[in-house]
Every structure is written in structure tokens, then in C-alpha cells.
């Protein structure tokens, strides 16, 4: 069953001679529990696609369905709430709150939504990601790899329908990148989590269940789950 679908997703910036087609009628389907890597060169449209999938930007045409919901049928405030509950983000720059410790950063999205933290589940995520004993540390007391593991734990904490990872290893060395990606894949399998990862690194992409290649705003291959 597809948990994420796009239909003829198009994004155009500017007009006239400055008109740029960042996405050109992109249709993509991701099954529940699948780990998909989207690869492409700089300017291919992969980051624009991720922003559309996460409801961070609205398309010129087309739409995105997350967990059966047309996210762009929602007004901005409702979309913000839906995004917080249904979509987990892992960014290249970690985006941790510097004044909150590891545990507080992980549960922050859940508490922001006014929900009770599932202590058993969060504890298992922390253990699986090798963060046990680090819960009271601040982000500046962690290595880059450790901070990215906290970001992954935070994305998992609210039990979202999908996790979107934007170049999650971009600031890490090759060995740490492999470790972090292995943990992302293991946690995804452990919690039946759907993951879409944007990367320019073909070697990293091969760790995914399926690779989707995008160039010039169009999907070249891998857009369908059975492709």
C-alpha cells in the first residue's frame, strides 16, 4: 500500500526568460515501510521534490498524498499540524535546538503537539541509535555523527507516516556516513518506517531498497514501487 504518492507534480519559478521548471510532471509512489533514495546532480530538482513531499513549499500544479491525504488541500495552519504529526525530517545541518539536551531534542516535536511521550518506544529508539547515556548532553557536546543520530531519533519520535532525509550525511566523513545510514536503515526496518532520502552520492543511495533518479525536473527511472 502506497503511503506517499505524487501526481503530475510541477514547480515553476519565475516567468518569461527567467522561467525555470524545477519539477516537470513528476509522479512517484512509495510503499509503506520502503526505503527510497532519490539521486540526481545539482539542480536536478531533487531538493525541490523533497520540499514538495514534506509540504514545505506548494507546487505550481499537481499534488502530494501522504497517508491518503491530499496535503495541499489543507490551509497553511492545518498543513503545519499535519506535517508535524505525519512527516519526520532529517536535515544535513541537524537543526537541533542548542539549548535543549539530547532527550529534550528528541521528544520536542511530540511535546509541541501536546501529546504524551511513549517512553518505552523512545527509549528503544535511543538504545538502537547508540545514544544511551547521552540523554543529558547538549548538542555542542556531541560529534557530527552523534548529532545526526539525535536528529534521526527526533524524526522517529512522533511515529510519522514518512521520514524525509535531505542529504543526511552531507556534513559527515565517509565512515561516519556509512554508520549513520546503516542506523537509519536498521531503525526504519525495526519500526516499519517509510524513508525517502535525497542524496547526490550514488554509493550511499545503494543502501536503499529502491533508487529513483531525477534529472532536469523529470524522473528518469525508479518512480514506481514495482519498477
Textual characterization of the structure:
By secondary structure, this protein is α/β, with parallel strands linked by helices. It has one domain: P-loop containing nucleotide triphosphate hydrolases (Rossmann fold). Strands 6-7-8-3-9-10 form a 6-stranded mixed β-sheet, with helices on both faces. Helix 4 runs antiparallel to helix 5 and helix 5 runs parallel beside helix 6. The mean pLDDT is 92.
Keywords:
six-stranded mixed beta sheet, Rossmann fold, 227 residues, four-stranded antiparallel beta sheet, alpha/beta, 28% strand
Order of helices and strands: EEEHEEHEHHHEHEHEE
Count of individual helical segments: 7
Question: Percent range for helical residues?
Answer: 25-40%
In the CATH hierarchy, the third-tier topology is known as Rossmann fold
CATH H-level superfamily: P-loop containing nucleotide triphosphate hydrolases
Beta-strand residue fraction: 25-35%
Structure described in brief:
By secondary structure, this protein is of the alpha/beta class.
Explain the layout of strands and helices:
Blueprint (H helix, E strand, L loop, with lengths): L1 E12 L6 E12 L3 E5 L6 H8 L7 E6 L2 E2 L5 H11 E5 L10 H11 L6 H10 L15 H14 L4 E5 L7 H17 L3 E6 L2 H4 L4 E6 L2 E4 L6
Parallel strand pairs: 3-8, 3-9, 6-7, 7-8
Antiparallel strand pairs: 1-2, 1-4, 4-5, 9-10
